Amino acid sequence: MGDLETGKAYTLNLVSQDEMLAFVDSTSMSDEGHVLLLSRLPQRRLLEHVDLDKVETYWVTSQDVAGSIQPSLDQIHDLVSARLENHRGLAVIEGIEWLISTHGFQDVLNMVMKLKDALHRKPWSLLLVVSADVLDPVQKSQWEREAPFWEIPKKIEFDVFEEETNELIVDPETNEDDYEEGGDRSLVFLVRIPREGYTKEIVRRRILQWRRMGIDVSSAEPALFQESDDVGFQIYQAVEGKVRRAVELDHRLDLLLEKGYRSEVIKMRFRVRQLTGLDEIEARIDELI
After folding, report:
1. Which of 33, 219, 63 is nearest to 124 (CA)?
2. For residues 280 and 269, what is the distance between their CA atoms, to the nearest angstrom?
3. How far is CA 242 from the centre of its chain?
């Protein structure tokens, strides 16, 4: 749990949600305990950042849907308190500023104080994620007495970065210089995942890699929820085929860009990254080239 001591509550000033979720994901991979996350993001968004098989997640929302919890202080307290009675681990509650705007500072602080009582001498740590600028100096002082501010260790950030970077294995036929994370370079082919190497964790990482390239691979997400890896692999393989075709088309669009078809390339490139209309796009490329 890094330097988070068990039996204590801490506060993380939210600077980067990606960084916070990377810490949660890294903690869940250690297998040292249970990880509970109450988030303002629905599970379909969280799976871009964490392994839902390793992190127990709840979407804090007023919507009544599966995997959600109402933004009720009583419900949140009861859920977290119940988890503290079993196992060991880390409980993370984000969106504290939203709860404060909904219920008022004092009521939220009272909930934290009750959770601290439930946490006493338990093999759990509690991390409360809040944008600290919503607290005035008096509120911040009161809050910090109950849950002192804490920062994500830099070592964990580095380890996560290295882990993610090393897993981006480019196909030998691809020039690695063509790929620039977050940039506008062409898409690249990634090494195929064979059936014998298929696991939900590997596929989750691959989905993250594709998303970083700007490809909409939401159709691959059901593979993460299949009990049968054979079924999951079939779903993944179908999407992988579309992605590889999209990469090939994206490279051909570079040729059109050189010929001056900038406006049309921009429109087609968007569709390629959405994995839609690939037959139509290929026919149009053939026509222009």
Report:
1. 33
2. 12
3. 23
Nearest-angstrom CA–CA distance, 145 and 112: 11
Please calculate the CA angle 104-109-115 and round it to the nearest 5 degrees: 135
Query: Edge-to-edge strands of the sheet including 34-39?
Result: 68-69, 56-60, 34-39, 89-93, 124-130, 8-13, 149-150
Class of CATH domain 8-157: alpha beta
Hey, where are the domains in the chain? 8-157, 168-288
Least Cα distance to 237 among 204, 196, 193, 171 occurs for 193
CB–CB of 148/112 below 8 Å? no
The C-alpha atoms of residue 155 and residue 147 are separated, in whole angstroms, by 23
pTM: 0.58
Tens-level pLDDT at each residue, the chain (289 residues): 447 899 999 999 998 887 888 889 878 877 678 999 999 999 988 877 788 888 999 999 999 898 999 999 999 999 999 999 988 999 999 999 999 999 999 999 999 999 999 999 999 999 999 998 899 999 999 999 999 999 988 643 333 333 343 344 444 444 434 433 333 456 888 888 888 888 988 898 899 889 888 899 999 999 999 999 999 999 999 999 999 999 999 999 988 888 889 999 999 999 999 999 999 999 999 888 7
Question: Helix H segments across the chain?
Answer: 17-29, 43-46, 73-84, 96-103, 105-119, 137-146, 154-166, 200-212, 229-258, 262-273, 278-288
